[in-house]
């Protein structure tokens, strides 16, 4: 096997792991949207007034 082909397989496997992790994290979240920005899960039930 050529070294370039091995490198392509490794990059493809890493890309699959990255996409799989993003999909898992978006399904794991109970509150919020699937963008994983963290803004949706913030608790604004009792904000401080200044």
Question: What is the element layout, followed by pairings?
Answer:
Layout: H1 3-28
Report on this model:
The chain is an all-alpha fold and 50 residues long. The protein has one helix at residues 3-28. The model has no long low-confidence stretch (mean pLDDT 79).
Which key terms come to mind for this protein?
50 residues, 1 helix, mainly alpha, 0% strand
* Number of helices, where a helix is a run of at least 4 consecutive DSSP H or I residues: 1
Unreliable segments of 5+ consecutive residues: none
Label the overall shape: rod-shaped
Residue share in β-strands: under 5%
Order of helices and strands: H
What is the rounded Rg?
19 Å
Main sheet characteristics? none
| Chain-averaged pLDDT | 79
Count the beta strands. 0
- State the end-to-end CA separation: 67 Å
Helix content: 40-55%
User: What is the structural class?
Assistant: mainly alpha
């Amino acid at each position: 096997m050529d070294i370039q082909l091995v490198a392509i397989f490794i990059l493809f496997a890493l890309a699959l792991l990255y996409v799989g992790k993003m999909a898992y994290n978006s399904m794991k979240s109970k509150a919020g949207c699937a963008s994983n920005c963290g803004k949706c899960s913030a608790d604004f039930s009792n904000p401080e007034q200044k």
